[in-house]
Amino acid sequence: MSPIFKALVVTERKQKTPLTLADYEEPTLSEGDLLLENVAAAQNPVDAKQLDNDFGIPSIPWVLGGDVAGTVYKVGPGVTKFAVGDRVISFLERKTARHSGYQTYSIAAESRTVKLPEKYSFEAGSTIPLAYITAAAGIADVFGIDLPSPKNPNVPSYAGEPFLVWGGSGSVGAYAVQLAHSLGFTVISTASPANHEYVKSLGAKYVFDYRDADVVSKIRQAAGPNLSKVYDSVSENGSVQASVQSITSPTGGKVAIILGLPTPDPSTSNVKVVATGARKAQEVPAVGEASYWYLAELLNKGTFIPNKVKVIPKGLLGVNEGFDLQRQHKISGEKLVYRIADTPF
Ligand SMILES: NC(=O)c1ccc[n+]([C@@H]2O[C@H](COP(=O)([O-])OP(=O)(O)OC[C@H]3O[C@@H](n4cnc5c(N)ncnc54)[C@H](OP(=O)(O)O)[C@@H]3O)[C@@H](O)[C@H]2O)c1
């Protein structure tokens, strides 16, 4: 069967009408590129934010989406790690419409792609790349943690040390909880009560309701006197300030955040709030290399738990509904996923 090249396209800036499908030509691959036949694409908050706030869209028409799972359809020059037919997940670069996710075939960089073992479905796999890389690169960068890498495959051990993940039921938070747990930290987290057991199943020892007026004192009591590392995967609506107050170590510590620094800066004399994010995987090559390598290790071990999947009907056309669910804050403890084959082409 001949391939279908169809994309869900943005045709005007801050578009209010539903995004629609359009044809495109098979793209040419550059050095280190793969062409992926997408099976599933996952939604991240940034997708609808880019549309609604008009950033990260260099030209119109445009295609959104950073997370895909599928098979390698073609390999470009210089590719060494992948072959046609491999099951993979990729954190797409979104530098052209063809490097984005809401389409049938995407250009993926070899360096940002990881093989997906059979144990994991494409739908589950698609939830991983962007949010996992955000968590891994941020944690490694801000706290100076050497994630396992080809040069040093040993997993560092932080056994006995507390680590707070504010917002463990979100996509990034769920991966941050698992990463911290895998490094031996005693993980403390926050979530709505309906998601407490879920966050514990990811490795958190204590989970508290962030709407509880006493949440900070409960965290401080559970943590003991040695909490110096907080990863705030929410980074808004007071979470940064509460994260700063949660630090108990007499020598202070750091709060990693993944949105812009609030004004005024909530840092104190010994607690530093540091803005980080997925970009650190590119800005600090050693951090990026270790983050992807460790993901492949965790997937191969089979212990890594992808986000809970909610498949939205109508494939790529379902993205319009998914963006509305995000705008209405109706996404809790699960990630929206689109099956390409469900699209009524
Ligand atoms: N800088 C970067 O590179 C980067 C990368 C990825 C994401 N981000 C940003 O990071 C944020 C999270 O992304 P995501 O993909 O993890 O989103 P998400 O999965 O949609 O997050 C939804 C979760 O957030 C939780 N939540 C909302 N407000 C909370 C609060 N005040 N305290 C604790 N939990 C709260 C909810 O928990 P309950 O349902 O349990 O209440 C919900 O499960 C977004 O703003 C996104 O744009 C930045």
From TrEMBL:
Annotated GO MF terms: oxidoreductase activity, acting on NAD(P)H
InterPro entries: ADH-like_C, ADH-like_N, ER, GroES-like_sf, NAD(P)-bd_dom_sf, Trans-enoyl_RdTase-like
UniProt source species: Sistotremastrum niveocremeum HHB9708
SUPFAM superfamilies (alphabetical): GroES-like, NAD(P)-binding Rossmann-fold domains
SMART domains: PKS_ER
PANTHER family in UniProt: HYPOTHETICAL OXIDOREDUCTASE (EUROFUNG), ZINC-TYPE ALCOHOL DEHYDROGENASE-LIKE PROTEIN C2E1P3.01
Ranges for domain Enoyl reductase (ER): 16-337
UniProt protein name: GroES-like protein
One Pfam family matching this protein: ADH_N
